[in-house]
Amino acid sequence: xxxxxxxxxxxxxxxxxxxxxxxxxxxxxxxxxxxxxxxxxxxxxxxxxxxxxxxxxxxxxxxxxxxxxxxxxxxxxxxxxxxxxxxxxxxxxxxxxxxxxxxxxxxxxxxxxxxxxxxxxxxxxxxxxxxxxxxxxxxxxxxxxxxxxxxxxxxxxxxxxxxxxxxxxxxxxxxxxxxxxxxxxxxxxxxxxxxxxxxxxxxxxxxxxxxxxxxxxxxxxxxxxxxxxxxxxxxxxxxxxxxxxxxxxxxxxxxxx
Length: 257
Known about the structure:
Layout: H1 9-19, H2 32-35, E1 72-78, H3 86-95, E2 101-104, H4 106-111, H5 113-121, E3 125-128, H6 142-160, E4 167-168, H7 177-185, E5 189-190, E6 195-196, H8 205-215, E7 221-225, H9 232-247, E8 251-253
Parallel strand pairs: 1-2, 1-7, 1-8, 2-3, 3-4, 4-5, 6-7
């Protein structure tokens, strides 16, 4: 899988502060929009104060398939939430009746908890994308990997009001056997992608759309971003891609767990 290493300075400016954050207890309220689908919890159940406690382990292999079947596609949105772009993405998804998976960094989730709650309330799923989006995580110690994954899990759960992330996506695809096993033990299926739109590089709306149309035969999971810079091209590409996918007879689903 491709690694997105360039242009990530915006994370570096805040990661130092994030690593020193003392994690607070997780909020007790669980959003009913996802309660039934997270760890088999009943609607309205309270979230455990210990992330991972009571969750059912999932497969450690990296998921790519869609639960919508052979003609299913998974829209995944990385690096947010962001106050400028996430609301626009949510509006488009709502307009076309599409549910997506939002892979959030702990830093961004902690900074914008209202947006995390908006994502959950709209019926989308959450994914742990680590605290600081370190694309060299696979070169770091297991203790470092654990801190990045589990601190982000806590931050996302707290920001969401108690909803657990259902997936773990390594920044830039920097998975390790250890990180996959750790995430899966906390009920987070490792999540890959099949179509890298390269929208992070801002190649132009037409280029993003063309990449989706050209590479969708590679598999159903499509990677977009809603943070990390100007995402105007991403928003405009989604405005074209979502109806095009429907016209081609695709159904929108979530990654398998």
